[in-house]
Amino acid sequence: MLTLYGDLLSQPTRAVALFCLANNIEYQLHFIDLSKQEHKRPEFLAINPRGLLPAITDDGFNLGESATILRYLAVTRSVPDHWYPADAKTRARIDSLLDWHHANLRQTSRYVFTKELQETVFKLPPPKKDEFRLYEWNMLAAMDVLEKEFLIEGPFLLGGSEPSIADLLLACEVTQTQILKKPDLEVILGPRPKIRLWLKALESNLAPNFSTVHSRIRDAAAFLEKKRNSELGCCRLLLRQKRQSTPRGVEQAMCEG
Amino acid sequence: MGLLRQVKDKLNAGEEVLSNKARFTQSKVSSVDSVGMMALTVYGDTLSQPTRAVVLLCLANKIPYELKVADFTKKEHKLPEFKELNPRSEVPVIDDGGFILAESTTILRYIASSRHLSDHWYPTEVKSRARVDYLLDWYHSNIHQTAEYVFQKELVTNLWKEPIPPEEIIKAAEQRMIASMDLVEGCFLKPEKGPFLLGASEPSIADIIFACEYTQTRFLVHPEQEKLMHERPKTMKWLDTVEKRLAPYFGEAHKTLPDLIMAAEFHRASLRITES
Q1: Are residues B135 and B257 in the same domain?
Q2: Is the CB of A51 inside 8 Å of chain B's CB atoms?
Q3: CATH of the domain at B144
Q4: Segment B2-9 mean pLDDT
């Protein structure tokens, strides 16, 4: 049985879960509570020494790094070729996107974290202005590359007629912006119609699984919006996982009492 | 005054070295290797560690290639001609018979697969490959910070002649670099199993790109280099093993570094003299 360690609030965890659901790969989601520092505990570090989400255990084989996990699952399970094509040059183009992602679009999560979560949810000191501006600048530059270069032919990345693992990983990064206030979200996605169309194409192509994996972040976004509207001074996002069954796996809850 | 003149003369000599490279705008010369494949064109600068890694893989496997230098010290990777190849100005970029590819770790994977290199470079067995992929992915956000630190600390000022970056940027890059080096030393090197990364008995493309990242620290002043490596005996042994295993190609891929290091040192010295 495949075990996926993570939290669907984390964008690369979502990408791996979505890939499993879209390809009917049985898996068990083992919730790792970041707020309790569970990713730093020895039992998790034994699986991924880097201590980051997601990680998998596949019949005793441990693996970290979301792009690597996606490649591994694409190759070991009988999935359609479009996810990670066997043709060397097409595969290299997808690998190129997966590599680019790390230093570029991944800045989106840093921006979202520093803008909305750092102080209000995690009660940390506010970000330094220069640092914040750098994340914002890097994120917008990456979004522009996505809009003007990688999505120049639709509907999927690099003109693909079907999604690849790169579509999942990059899209789940962009959807992290749901956490932002609506005006901030509009500033990022408003002037980028190709990105909006691409997200819609993915949602449609991968229905209902795309929506399913985003349920937790949708709830978190709604929770934050409610708190902002109620103008309460204290806001603590309860990173709880409710016990619920999914059609293809059971999430093990690690709730606070 | 006499000393300043000496330093200036050597700086000028250093400048000459820097300017004495083939430009990528020169017309291409293609050659065909023994199995009929066109030679690979690599656009980059061996000042940049990922370019060195690609060159080293080609040299070690006798893959014909032509290096078209996009001189980093003169920011030629920002020129319009280079942006036609790669609008994001990233180096290295390869042209394999018209197939253009960027991102060094992808280039290494592609060369290993398309040239059917010995399996240890990028294993076909799925779990062994996943282990190498893990390191290549981890590289980007982690040990690649070594280069970022070296760039901010030494290269921006001493090669680009730009103002010293803010202290917090240098400090942040240093912390990330040290954390990554600690993980390599403490976790990824398993000499009890094998001399290469993750205890492999032969080098992979991950060993190549990681090693080229560490050699970037040669731009730091010696006391700082020693301090970084002093408490990392496994790393020092591994680097030595990689260098010996890939000799003489490792030295060949790094041959431009001594001159660049010299140019940087002289500029550093001149700054000290003009300040005093």
Answers
A1: yes
A2: no
A3: 1.20.1050.10
A4: 48
